[in-house]
From TrEMBL:
Species this protein is from: Noviherbaspirillum cavernae
Cofactor: Mg(2+)
GO cellular component: cytosol
Family, similarity comment: Belongs to the TRAFAC class TrmE-Era-EngA-EngB-Septin-like GTPase superfamily. EngB GTPase family.
GO biological process: division septum assembly
Taxonomic classification: Bacteria, Pseudomonadati, Pseudomonadota, Betaproteobacteria, Burkholderiales
Keyword field contains GTP-binding: yes
Record's protein name: Probable GTP-binding protein EngB
Function of the molecule: Necessary for normal cell division and for the maintenance of normal septation.
Entry keyword set: Cell cycle, Cell division, GTP-binding, Magnesium, Metal-binding, Nucleotide-binding, Septation
Membrane-spanning residues: none
Amino acid sequence: SLLWQARFFTTVNHLRDLPKTQIPEIAFAGRSNAGKSSAINILCNQKKLAFASKTPGRTQHINYFSIGGAHVGQHRKDPTIVEEIRGLLVDLPGYGYAEVPGEAKTHWNALLGAYIQTREQLTALVLIMDARRPFTELDVQMLEWFAPTGKPVHCLLTKADKLNRTESTNALRLARTVLNSYVDEQGKPFPFSVQLFSALKRSGLEEADDKILSLLGM
Ligand code: GDP
């Protein structure tokens, strides 16, 4: 997969530092511990591309990974070569850490909200939710911010290995029902898709890979 070429691009702490590019980007959002880093790593076939934030409130950044190119100086053979970067994966800070101090929480909520509502280069959102407890308050907040943009959302219901067949079917059905209730600015349903995923069992990998690449126009 093209995603296997993903490599670290940049880290951002403030909106003003977002990369000034024309490159389409797709953002991964999710509650802390939902399985976002595991999903990104497995999709990119790399062990430690995305890392779980072990120190809440301190290690939170927006991390960018590039696909299909290299920066100046990063090309393996010729450091003067700048290959064309075709897409960016954006790892948003996990939300919902109870222990994050109020001030940091406010800072990150504001940053996340502003980013997903206003970032023009953002083509789609991948919302990572634990299949056993989807649509927490902050997941809903993300959807309420993002749905009005009318851009597509792809939901990964992770840790699907913890569900049996009936629970899986029910989880998908519930997710579709909830997602159907959101509308864009014109009051039209916004484009969404949803799937089960397990980093542990590597299930749903191909579906997610296809979806992400197609959302990036690849
Ligand atoms: P993040 O905080 O959203 O980045 O979550 P992580 O990817 O760090 O995962 C949080 C915890 O859930 C870790 O202990 C992972 O091993 C576990 N985990 C992640 N994905 C899966 C999965 O598909 N199945 C199971 N059973 N556990 C998972």
